[in-house]
Specification:
By secondary structure, the protein is mostly helical. The chain contains two helices and no strands.
Length: 70
């Protein structure tokens, strides 16, 4: 199942969700400290969260699919 296209898409989505959840949690920790609460900064950091999730997911899948960085 995990080797099928649907299985791979599901695993990719789970990886993306995990990294998004991690980044959003860090953003909330910053907000809980009272920082970055103005609209412009909050909007910018939301885009950073999305970019991090996408880039980290692609990096993990690149390493997994190519057998490592070396």
């Amino acid at each position: 199942m995990a080797r099928s296209i649907i299985g791979q898409l599901a695993l990719f989505a789970i990886t993306l969700s995990a990294f998004y959840h991690l980044a959003k949690g860090l953003q909330h920790l910053v907000w809980d400290s009272g920082r970055a609460l103005d609209i412009k900064t909050a909007s910018l950091t939301s885009w950073v969260v999305i970019a991090f999730a996408v880039l980290a997911t692609v990096a993990v899948w690149f390493v997994a699919c190519t057998g490592g960085l070396a």
